[in-house]
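3.2 Worked example (two chains)
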Amino acid sequence: MKSLVVFLCAVIAYGSSAKLREVEISRFQDSKKASALGRIVSGQPANENQFPYQCSVLSPVGAGFSVCGGSIISSGWVLTAAHCTVGYAQHTLRFGTINLTSGGQTQTAFGAISHPGYNSVNMNNDISVISIPTPLTFSPAIQSIRLPTNSQIGSTFLDATAVVSGWGSIYEGSGASHTLNWVNMRIISNTACMNIFGGAIVVGHVVCATGINSANQGHCGGDSGGPLTILESGTSTQIGVVSFGAATGCDLPYPSGYMRTANFIHWINEKTGIAVRP
């Protein structure tokens, strides 16, 4: 584990690299607690097809796997965090299921395209895309998520209600969850987030959120790369990619950090060919 002490609070990337936080399948030592609590942190389990754009990203680490999340942004591409892909040559992608290691369909991807400005020290530009080897066929269980529009670049989404989902730890120190979980979040200002994590980490392309019902709600280890979404006219739009949180504990009352997807839509277009909406 590598923690980064900056200003008032230590910061940890929630997910994957051997240099960062690992949540390995081999650490599924407490399935009873996972089943009983059923949450990201203070959230709830997902229903089948509730998040058809969510996929898991498993990357080999020794005898186990590092666990991250991702989102389907087209039939041929997955969006995730750079710290979920940097240092890995292979990723197992699982689509169309709320179970981490069963159901749905899997594909093995080799390599990814990480943002050239990714910085593992302050987590700037923590975003990556993975090419899906065989383009997906969409169904009720497998759908792409809508990305922000060009006009939403610079939007703060302040006080918007958002949803984060993933297979990460359901409480600090637990293993990854077998079942996809989700929780409602509220977008907070970058100024408020900067007061906790500092200006080197909370830059313009970062968006932060805190739990709707409790300040200790949010993502945890293994949720990295997963989507933060808002509902617009009945359709989900991805406004963030799970990136970092407080190393002092994901079940403590600190906000969680995400890459602000709108700020990267032109980079995503350049690498994937996905058109930018006006």
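3.2.1 Second chain
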Amino acid sequence: YHSVIPLVVTQLEGDIPKIRQSIIIGSVIPLLMFLAWNAVILGCVTPDIIQLSPGNERIFDPLKILRNGASGEWFAMLLSIFSEFAIVTSFIGITYGLTDFFKDISLITKSEISRLPLYSLVLLPPLSLGTFNPTIFFQALEYTGTFSISILAGIMPALMSWKQSQKPEFFHSNHQTLVPGGKITLIFIIMGGIFLIGRQFQYITIYKF
């Protein structure tokens, strides 16, 4: 949901308490759903299907068991519906975030994009790629998920906040209260992003080559 945060900040007109409340509530609700999802999935199956990972490790896949109807056809159907909702909500968030991003770019270039070209710019490229190669999403996610998310949602925002804190006009502004702990917190965020990227490189090196 990181790509939606700039849109939330704009719509709430920079009101820090409302922004913080929106992010916390918007994170707690899916967290509770995620925990409930894990409890239901793991509580409905027994480890009778074992798969091997690229490193020849034994993997228990409860989701695959339930999709095959181990707990009944109705539950398998509900599982599919829930999965579709997860995809749709992610799709909506990404679409809103990207449209807001391109709107900002158009304002910087002193030209405003109308609605149809704007949504075409957001939706047509992935639609075209997905049409020609239906599995490209999974292939791209395997290699770029960790790298892009760690950089775009971790390292870059921390560096931007660090750069802003060095400007006199931002030093005593309310923007600084959004990052408790100041530069120490930013350092931990940057180190966390670098750590995740390093782990992904290690995985690719060991299991892919």
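3.3 Remarks
The chain has eight helices and two strands.
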